[in-house]
Amino acid sequence: MLGKRRVIKFGKSGNVILRMYLVFDIGGTKTRIGISSDGQALIETKIVPTPADFETGIQTIKQVADDLSHGQTIKKITGGIAGPLNQDKSMLIKSPHISSWIGKPLKERLENIFNATTFLENDAILAGLGEACFGVGKNYKIVAYLTISTGVGGAKIVEGKVDQNTQGFEPGHQIIKPDGIPCKCGGIGHLETLVGGSYIQQRYGLKAEEITDPAVWDEIVKFLAIGLHNTIVHWSPEVVILGGSVSQSIPLDKLLEDLTVLSTIFPRLPKVSKGSLGDQAGLLGALKLLR
Ligand SMILES: [Zn+2]
Q1: Distance from the CA of 186 to the center of ligand 1, in angstroms?
Q2: CA 190 / ligand 1 centre spacing (Å)
Q3: pLDDT confidence of 19, banded at 50, 70, 90?
Q4: Do 275 and 40 meet the contact criterion of CB atoms below 8 Å apart?
Q5: What are the φ and ψ backbone dihedral angles of 181, each rounded to 5 degrees?
Q6: Percentage of residues in the chain having pLDDT higher than 90
Q7: Are the CB atoms for 224 and 250 separated by under 8 Å?
Q8: How far is the CA of 216 from the centre of ligand 1 (A)?
Q9: How far is the CA of 188 from the centre of ligand 1 (A)?
Q10: Does residue 3 belong to any structural domain of this protein?
Q11: Are residues 118 and 39 in the same domain?
Q12: How many whole angstroms from 183 Cα to the centroid of ligand 1?
């Protein structure tokens, strides 16, 4: 979809200089990169595997951005990355899935390479913002977003803004099974170890989208329902949105059935829905934050 407005300048030679916005979403497995000319709509996007190595990651972002922008000047950059960030949001401080990126000056490197102001945020926060503002959450005031992908993340979005927080949101690392297996973050029995894509593959030998046995889904959904119940009683949302690749395969009817049994304190369940923006949720959330 082409943006409506473009910031157009004329260079000394008279050539038109378009000023572009770069947005990205670095997940545990895939990185999505997009370009916008007006900060409102994405012109073009590309998905590449997330490089395990930070330096390779920087080069990949640079290369894809150059391809997508056709060499036009990047004015501003906003992007998400999988894991909690440090206080000034310049780098990742913990990540079970892309450990080589921890403590590396991501913001500074991008600002130097592109000579453009850069904002970083947690990837689930941006995807939540995208779904809350442009996806199935757009008519709701209080949105609980959970992404179930390689790992599990989430965010509380209130009236189209990320709710106030001191260290982010990490509903994927709530304890569901105190005698469960270790989580890559160092904890035990976290929601992520029970419903996250990389753990599902370890446990069942299949990717989520390959699992057809209803008994396996019953087990996964049972734990997801406990996690969502906890999130609902803490965040009190009007709608719960499930994003991320694994959530596409989750049987929603069974999940609602389990949630209804667990929900004994509130008179009604919030609406529970799968996200509608797919891979673009994080990029659209990044555009929203950029504005
Ligand atoms: Zn954990």
Answers
A1: 6
A2: 5
A3: confident
A4: no
A5: -90, 160
A6: 86
A7: yes
A8: 22
A9: 7
A10: no
A11: yes
A12: 5
Q: Are the C-beta atoms of 281 and 247 separated by less than 8 Å?
A: no
Let me know if residue 131 belongs to a domain. no
Q: Is 128 part of any domain? A: no
**Residues 188, 174 contacting (CB under 8 angstroms):** no
How many whole angstroms from 171 Cα to the centroid of ligand 1?
9
| Distance from residue 184's CA to the centre of ligand 1 (Å) | 6
Whole-number Å distance, alpha carbon 107 to ligand 1 midpoint, is 25
Q: How far is 232 from 230, CA to CA, in rounded Å?
A: 5
Q: What's the 205 CA to ligand 1 centre distance in angstroms? A: 21
Predicted confidence at residue 71, as pLDDT, reads 83
Count of domains forming the chain: 2
Whether the model pTM is above 0.70: yes
- CA 126 to CA 135: how far, in whole Å? 12
Domain of residue 242 covers 136-275
Q: Does one domain contain both 96 and 154?
A: no
Same domain for 163 and 265, yes or no, is yes
Residue 229 Cα, ligand 1 centroid: separation in angstroms? Answer: 18
Q: Both 202 and 99 in a single domain?
A: no
* pLDDT tens digits, one per residue of 179-234: 999 999 999 999 999 999 999 999 999 999 999 999 999 999 999 999 999 999 99
Q: What is the dihedral of CA 26, 27, 31, 36, to 10 degrees?
A: -50
Q: Distance from the CA of 95 to the center of ligand 1, in angstroms? A: 10
Ligand 1 centroid to residue 221 C-alpha, Å: 18
Ligand 1 centroid to residue 44 C-alpha, Å: 34
Q: Tell me: the pLDDT tens digits for 153-191? A: 999 999 999 999 998 899 999 999 999 999 999 999 999
Distance, in Å, from the CA atom of 44 to the CA atom of 254, rounded to the nearest integer, reads 37
